[in-house]
């Protein structure tokens, strides 16, 4: 909380974190999105104190990490797994050897280690690759090894540093599904950083947009989608560029049974001309968007009515 980090270089200083407050609920997937240099990596590395913030406190699973040092800190870190963009596998070790590595370091005996490695490889869908070397694997398989290794010490929290950025769209999809399944099955809490909005849309329950070391906006994704003026909502769902002066985009952040459009024509005597629309899955929920031309003298009343019903209405042509 209140995290601040300033890097002091020879000629200048860079404020990588400028008072960031991040609260991740237990069992949720939280995504921090932002452009290169926004401070995402510094934030992620502050959570397990690979980077010690200049100010602020870090609490993970009820334990205040910022007050720990030495062996206490090392023990706390073991309860936080980390997945890296470029996998960070040891090329001279087999898949099983890579996953076993953190267990060896913490002194787990051979039999127990082997059993655990077998279990983890099954969990990530690599049961048949134990003896392969990283160079024989695809990017997606390498990341599965990275995930299995991160889970070796039974962490409660998983940090993901651009885990899918080096992968093609199809593989990205399979890794995101895996992360989601692991969250569901193991009750993990996942904090991920990404520069891809799609990752937020696909698996995050909550998200923050970060720029210049600060959060511009944060909250539950579904709440933000229903919030007028939300930057995150606009980035997830850009307004269509074929809108005219009469066009509005209506977002349904949850499913409604009411036939709103026919109600509008009846109540407010407006003409509704549907231009396009669709339903997308966001954080496991369906979010509908409808782009319509609304015509008639009581157009503004119709828009107010939709807003009162809990729908988000944006003027696309402005
Ligand atoms: N060890 C360091 N020493 C000096 N400056 C650093 C260091 N690490 C990061 N910075 C600077 O801090 C700022 C935030 O960097 P950070 O890597 O956290 O951003 P990011 O959002 O993760 O970007 P990227 O996606 O490119 O990694 C940048 O201006 C960066 O140059």
Automatic annotation (TrEMBL):
InterPro entries: AAA+_ATPase (IPR003593), ABC_transporter-like_ATP-bd (IPR003439), ABC_transporter-like_CS (IPR017871), ACT-like_dom_sf (IPR045865), MetN_ABC (IPR041701), MetN_ABC_transporter-like (IPR050086), NIL_domain (IPR018449), P-loop_NTPase (IPR027417). It comes from the Bacteria. Coiled coil: none annotated. Residues 1-237 form the ABC transporter domain. Keywords: Amino-acid transport, ATP-binding, Cell membrane, Membrane, Nucleotide-binding, Translocase, Transport. SUPFAM superfamilies: ACT-like (SSF55021), P-loop containing nucleoside triphosphate hydrolases (SSF52540). CDD domains: ABC_MetN_methionine_transporter (cd03258). GO terms for molecular function: ATP binding. It holds the Pfam family ABC_tran. This is ATP-binding cassette domain-containing protein. It comes from Nocardiopsis coralli.
């Amino acid at each position: 909380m209140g995290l601040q980090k300033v890097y002091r270089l020879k000629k200048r200083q860079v404020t990588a974190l400028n008072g960031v407050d991040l609260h991740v609920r237990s069992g949720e997937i939280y995504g921090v999105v932002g452009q290169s240099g926004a401070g995402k990596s510094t934030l992620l590395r502050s959570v397990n104190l690979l980077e010690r913030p200049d100010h602020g406190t870090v609490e993970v699973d009820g334990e205040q990490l910022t007050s720990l040092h030495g062996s206490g800190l090392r023990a706390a870190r073991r309860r936080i797994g980390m997945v890296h963009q470029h996998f960070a596998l040891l090329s001279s070790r087999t898949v099983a050897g890579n996953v076993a590595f953190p267990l060896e370091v913490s002194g787990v005996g051979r039999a127990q280690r082997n059993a655990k490695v077998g279990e983890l490889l099954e969990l990530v869908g690599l049961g048949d690759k134990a003896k392969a070397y990283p160079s024989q694997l695809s990017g997606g398989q390498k990341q599965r090894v990275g995930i299995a290794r991160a889970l070796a010490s039974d962490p409660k929290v998983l940090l993901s540093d651009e885990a899918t950025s080096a992968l093609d769209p199809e593989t990205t999809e399979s890794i995101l599904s895996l992360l989601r399944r692991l969250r569901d099955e193991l009750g993990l809490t996942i904090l991920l950083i990404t520069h891809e909005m799609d990752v937020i849309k696909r698996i995050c329950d909550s998200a923050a947009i970060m720029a210049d070391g600060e959060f511009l906006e944060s909250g539950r994704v579904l709440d933000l989608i229903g919030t007028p003026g939300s930057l995150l909502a606009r980035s997830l769902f850009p307004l269509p560029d074929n809108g005219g002066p009469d066009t509005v985009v209506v977002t349904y952040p949850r499913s409604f049974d009411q036939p709103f459009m026919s109600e509008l024509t009846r109540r407010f005597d407006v003409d509704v001309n549907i231009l396009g629309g669709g339903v997308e899955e966001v954080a496991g929920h369906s979010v509908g968007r409808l782009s319509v031309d609304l015509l008639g003298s009581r157009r503004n009343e119709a828009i107010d009515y939709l807003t009162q019903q809990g729908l988000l209405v944006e003027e696309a042509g402005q």
